Amino acid sequence: MSEAIVSLRGVTKNYTRGKQKIEVLQPLDLQISQGDFLALMGPSGSGKTTLLNLIGGLDQPSSGEVNVGGQRIDQLSSRALAQWRSHHVGFVFQFYNLLGVLSAEKNVELPLLLTSLSKAQRAKHVATALEIVGLGDRAKHKPSELSGGQAQRVAIARALVADPTLLVCDEPTGDLDRKTADEILGLLQTLNREHGKTIVMVTHDPKAAEYATHQLHMDKGRLIEQSANA
Amino acid sequence: MASSLQQVISVTAMNIRSIPSRLGTSLVIVVGIAGVVGVMVALLSMAKGFELTLASTGRDDRAIIMRGGSNDELSSVLVREQAQVVLDAPGVAKGSDGKPLAIGELFMITDVAKRGATSPNNVVVRGTTARVFELRPEAKIVEGRMFTPGVREVVAGRSAQRQFAGLNIGDKVDVRDGPWTVVGVFESKGDVHESEIWVDVDALMTASRRGAYNTVTAQLTSADAFQGFKDALTSDPRVTIQAQREPEYYASRSETLNKMITVLGYSVAIIMGIGALFGALNTMYAAVATRSVEIATLRAIGFGNGPVVISVILESLVLAAAGGIIGGAVAYLFFNGYTVSTLNMQTFSQVAFQFRVTPDLLWKGVIWACSIGLIGGLFPSIRAARVPIVDALRSS
Amino acid sequence: MKYFPLIWAALGRRKPRTILTGLSIAIAFLLYGMLNAVNVAFNYGAEMSGVDRLVTTGRYSITQILPYGHAHQIRSLPGVTSVAASDWFGGYYQDQRNFFPQFAVEQEEYLGMYPEIVLPEQEKQAFFTTRTGALVAKTLADRYHWKVGDKIPMQAGIWPLKGGGNVWTFDLVGIFDTANPKDRGQYEMMLIRHDYFDEARQFGTGTAGWYVSKVKHPSEAGTLAKLIDNTFANSPNETRTDTEKAFNQSFMKQLGDIGLIISSILGAVFFTLLFLTGNTMMQSVRERIPELAVLKTLGYTDPLILALVLGEALLLTLISALLGLAMATMVLPSLASQLPGLSGLTITLPTIYGALGVAVLLSFIVGLPPALRAMRLNIVDALMGH
After folding, report:
1. What pTM value is reported for the model?
2. ipTM of this predicted complex?
3. Helix ranges, chain C (H)
4. Which residues of C touch A158 (CB under 8 A)?
């Protein structure tokens, strides 16, 4: 068994709305090993997206430790966290979140602008990423000219291009039809099996969970079931 | 379905009621146009004030007589013999003393500093006699007294006294050949003479070692007498003389400066107006875009395209008109009645005048504002009516 | 800068809006350029006047007349190298509205002390030898289609001829230009000879309107001015003497504070503009919150986001400002030819620097609030709002 690449200990998350304190996550512990493909599931309001945000460094816990790739990200300043994200996490969202004014390849290039790579080096990485997701021929198209599935592939390429430790996906197939969803999930599975990418995916879709290596169920801010797929 | 007019009213009312929710972008039009109109009205009120000061000078039944060929009082020279010819001409009214009511005057410039400054300004010194108040009944001494004949004393016009230093009663002002004493202040209904200082003509002749007058101003028996009077003078071979009705002369002295300021005012207004137009277009396009679903829904329900177009234009007009009124009001509050004095190149002398924000200027401002608002609303409104309903409903 | 394509693409997001905003800004800077050029032209005259020339007028007003004898006394003072008597002819060509200055001057002394005026040597000599000769500025010759050899009739506004006639006829013997083209507005005039003028006029013979003197050492100008005035103090014809520069400056001041009026107009224009563009920027950033949140998820730091939004404001404002200045440069020459005395109207380098400075300031004032808002957005909230 490979070492834990993500380790959460005693993590909680609260919000205050007016006078009320809402506990979105109860104190929870979680370990994710390198090379896992984890599907996080649960009814809406269960806190799965919140948990995802904490793992991905988009948010900070109210208490507890969040350890990713050996780094205590709960202790980082927001600036350091931003830098950390650029190197260690790749995000894939339900609605792709591509920049409409940029072409596909320019979208994929975005994370690389934060590095000190030269223009030629960046172009090389972008080409590679687009090829991995099977979109080499659509590089110059704008998101408005791509189908849902193609757009999501671009988003995945963008998430991959900086070679992150972790791929974090929030309902990546939520806006796609069955056939396209299966294609995307297949792609994620390939990335996990053949390229060894660790993936944490929030999903509603029980079929999506079948592509993962592990499943985690949540309800009311608690982990209630953990299982491994065959 | 309601009639077209009712449709227009209800859609417009709906648009206008929703303005508070789009306050930021709506204010863009209001403030932008207020700026344009404010500047335009301010500049034009400067021209208007100057024009009114000069145009209100003089009466139709008074004439100013100068050397033929001279354009203004400063450059004219009339020797005593010529002046006598004027006094004897037909049509000159008689004064209370039975003698012709006409005065040969000197017109000179002396350097006086503005209040709070040191550099000199060309202030008009008019050499005249005590009969000037009979000749020009609109003028009266309001403080102190008139100068004594033959003595080096000065009465200052109210505007001159206000704008320039050292023209209070008791002060001494350099006129010619030394300082003269200010003994009184006169007012003359805010016309150009209030920017002058008056002295005794004989005292001035002696001090400046001149032998001739500059001009003669004569009261005529009636306004109609002017033609006969003028003909008699211009046909007299002894003299090269020209006669003009006073209002005509003084108005002609305001042409150049007036034109300059007016051209400046309109040019700036047009240029700024174009800038504001772009802003208005921006705002209205955005306004239409954010309400495209609403508008499409109305059209789907059955509201006609016409009412939709008109309502958008009306909204733009309302905002623009508001801006125009505010701009005009600001110009009025800040500038109306503000006194400035500048060098009138046509007479080479300082003239003090007030900015005058008149109703017709305010009206011009509103019209200009509405023109901008009209165009600013026109193109976006046409776009709003042209988008296929289905497309508009889908976009959100 | 590697982020340039990103900023540029962001501007293209809503092309009509960007273009309209850009045009508003361009218009404002068009006005800035034009009004500034006028302001510079007004002050230039005062700035560039000779510091080695003195102007002596009557003590009470420049409109006073001085006896010719004064010239000799001034000339005999140590430090004064030459003196030229001058008079304001004050006439017009054909129509009252064709205004330009005409000066009757002592020809050799005057041209000797104004090296700014340049003309072919033979034309200069013709002026020295032709009593009824006249010289005009090139800009005037162009405007009225005069050529050397023409006879130019001038209506006397002030000085009739002996015998009462009103029309003086001069022989155009030369057309001059200024050594520095920027001076053209200053020297747009006609020169005639003082000796002919003095002899042919009906009255005022033996007098001059004022005297211009050249001093050997500009540093002595102030002392010499006082010396001249002392010479005539307590005489029937007292004088006031000042350097030409001070004289021109105080004349400019009489025109009222042109600079103040222009600055006020510009202030109003820019305030209005601030509002227009500020609002557009705010709108644009508001729409882009989800996008900016995505950039943050990618690891774009807060300061970087701030810089990107500011950069957008800066880019748009600078491009538009340059466009406006370019438009002003194109418009000015035709405007200048219409305005008498302002033929030297151009956009100067200081004006451009000033405009760019204002553009930068404007983009900061307008871009900072939305940039700060973008910087501070909370990623999770922003993404949820999607």
Report:
1. 0.78
2. 0.81
3. 4-11, 15-48, 69-75, 107-113, 121-129, 138-144, 194-200, 221-232, 244-254, 258-297, 302-338, 349-376, 379-384
4. 298
